[in-house]
Write a structure and sequence with these properties.
Blueprint lengths: L1 H33 L1 E3 H12 L2 E3 L2 H4 L3 E3 L7 H11 L3 E4 L4 E5 L4 E10 L10 E4 L5 E3 L5 E8 L3 E5 L6 E4 L9 E5 L9 E3 L7 E4 L4 E4 L14 H4 L6 E2 L9 E2 L7 E5 L2 E2 L4 E2 L4 E2 L6 E7 L13 E7 L8 E7 L2 E11 L2 E10 L7 H11 L8 E21 L4 E22 L2 E23 L4 E20 L4 E21 L4 E21 L2 E23 L2 E12 L4 E13 L4 E12 L1 E5 L11 E5 L8 E14 L2 E16 L15 E16 L3 E16 L6 E3 L6 E10 L4 E10 L3 E2 L8 E4 L2 E4 L7 E2 L3 E13 L5 E9 L7 E8 L7 E7 L4 E9 L1
Parallel strand pairs: 2-5, 6-12, 18-23
Antiparallel strand pairs: 1-3, 4-5, 6-9, 7-8, 7-10, 10-11, 13-14, 14-15, 15-22, 16-17, 18-19, 20-21, 22-23, 24-25, 24-54, 25-26, 26-27, 27-28, 28-29, 29-30, 30-31, 31-32, 32-33, 33-34, 34-35, 35-36, 36-39, 37-38, 39-40, 40-41, 41-42, 42-43, 42-44, 44-45, 45-50, 46-49, 47-48, 50-51, 51-54, 52-53
Length: 851
Amino acid sequence: MVKKLLSLTMVHKFLLFYIFFICIVSVTYAQNSSNKVALSSLLVKLEKSYDIRFSYSDADVKTIFINKPDKEISIEKLLVFLNEKTFLQFKTLDNRYVTVSFLNKTIAVCGTVLDSKNLEPLLLTSVKVNGYKLGTTTNNKGVFYLKNVPVNATLSLSFISFKTKTIAAKELFSSNCKQILLEEEVEELSEIRMSKFLTTGLQKNVDGSTVLNTEKFGILPGLIEPDILKTIKILPGVESVNESISNINVRGGTNDQNLILWDGIKMYHAGHFFGLISAYNPYLTKQVSVTKNGTSSAFSDGVSSTINMETSNRITNKLSGGGGFNLLSADAFVQVPVKENLELHISARRSFTDYLNTPTYNNYFSRSFQDNSISSNDVNNTKSEFYFYDYSFKVLYDMTYNHSIRTNFIHIKNDLEYLEKYTANNTTIEENSTLKQENLGIKISWDAIWNSKFSTTLSGFFSDYKINSSDYNKDTDQFQTQFNNVLETAIKLNSKYEFSDVLEFTNGLVFNEIGIKNTTSVNAPTFSRTVKDVLLKSAFYTEIVYKKNNTYARFGARANYFHTFNKFVIEPRINIRQKINSLFSVNLEGEFKNQTTAQKIDFEDNFLGIEKRRWVLSDDKNTPIVKSKQLSVGVAYSKNKLYIDITGFRKKVDGITAANQGFYNNTQNLNSIGNYEVKGVEFIANKQTENISTWVSYTYSKNDYTFDVFNPETFSNNLDISHSLSAAFNYSFSKKLKVSFGGVLRSGKPYTKPIKGNETIQNGNRTIVNYNNPNKEKLNNFFRLDLSGSYKFDFSKAIKANIRLGFTNITDQKNTIDSYYVVDNTNVNNVRRVNNYSLPFTPNLSFRVRF
């Protein structure tokens, strides 16, 4: 009984509170509402008070409510008040009659544009008044203001990868800056064609390029983080014959034929740990796009591909960051707002391999040094100290809503010191070797939006790449050094004019200077050689882009002038994509490209047997400008989250030299110029459900060299991978727990055997391997299975964490990735075969925290 009474008392108290609350709200609302009256009623009262007549349409005024004007004001002030407080035009015909209409009325509007998902402001959203040369962009709070907007006009608000929204100007006639929510776009009209491709964070652009959004990156087999250059290897047509991201081969091209840009800075160094992991910290690199053909004319170099990495370019005014570690390194990044219009983005990563040896480090180290004297001698005592680091920072400064300055800095370094003692012919020999690689880049840019249609970007960058090695043999007292240095500076002016929402016109000028220096010195016998080349070039580019409904078309051209050679090179570009119906779309891509830098590969005069590539510059004679022509045609099918794409391509690259290709045969010392031509088909199928994403990709290609001085003239390319098949299966147990399993099966790369029965010959005072015709043999097929898992959890609402496990080559398959022969008088036929093997079973683990 007592419980019932208590329960009834609680109910009565709740009812009393509820009634009291309703009364308060009602009174408050009544008080607020009493200040505003319907315009239709007010006009009737004003007609009586001022003895005037308003001529208006009931439909124009019935939805308008305004505050009451002050009593006993003049009729002139009354009309000014009504014009300011409504979007109607009040105009006197004579002393008694006043017309009320929308005719020639302009108003001031404002709005706040937000992301509909997280309600974050969208900076630089384009705001256009349809049918008028009037527009603006949002500030860093997502707010925009516009004056003199026709009252009957509509405004279009658009932001990259979001649906364009149209809203009436009358709805924005308020000092409160009404919130406008934009939704992410997943249809054909957006810049993003597919919001999810293979895994979360991988997207397909409308121009055919593939975009990696590192912030939203999901999971891939064997990977524990969104390693930028490892991730792109899952794409069809992208291979690495030796597993190294320092040797990425796109449609049969060598690694030096990839243009690598970090925030617009051309980078000459790609990997840490001699190519086994990417040198670019992914946690401030927000987006990476990979283009294999149909490249924008704004880009030059990279006759095989363009890999464009971009960091966040928006001031968030929020303190955020994160950090973590894996079994090789630790890193941290932070975004620090200094002022409302000033922000710093900082990231840093360093390995702890000089302090701690993990199983991952041991496998990576053995894999990197297997092609060195370390692997072929009786090593009694070795001591190595290896570490790498990279750091970057970016300053974001908005001078005004339409003018911004961005400054970038990045520094990447690998440092190795190696001391070994080994026994050869009963003699103890001691060697001390060092190797340092680094790339420094600086850029400053000014972005200006002059009006709703015209914008410009003025930028300049400086890139400095160095590789410095030394080797000291105590037994022979011989000390040798090698040095390779690339210095590049560039100034670029880009302009874009938008004729309409569907048509834009881009033009640009680029001035560029590249200097490359190569130095080799030996003390016994005394020898020194220094080669330094400088090239000045400039370019003008233009392109027009049309995007409407189911059509995307980009036509461009680039005119390059090489001042040093007094030579013009014209490069047309084309990229067309047409959706035929709701299921099928077709595409056509074509381009001419050139590049003036290449990597020379010298196996006899190398950097400690691990870094054999040195950059050289075109001289238009012995090292010509490399030129490519490429055409590709494809068809895509999409329905019910099933995506299928088939693309055929043909590419020819002229101006390559034998020294650039890394031959392990008699041709490696010949200074000959030739070309390669690759033809192939790429296929990918991706099926997604709520919890599953599975895909299979296959590439068939035929890749042949042609060198006039060789016999035979035409033979298989070193990178001729005839068949490449990969597949993966991603499963999400929940939003927190995910796994990914996949594998790669591909043809072995070509290699060359010695002539049977005549394996060695004399070359002056030296005995060398007498190789047969180049690349007649092929290595065994390459096969590898990988596995990874990811688990997310939250320490709090603000702090989120993630643990990932990755296993590379879970079957511990011993894949031969390269093979060559050396003279060895202790062996039968005086030669010995040297095989390089892929990474064995290798675990890795990462733990990350983000706030």
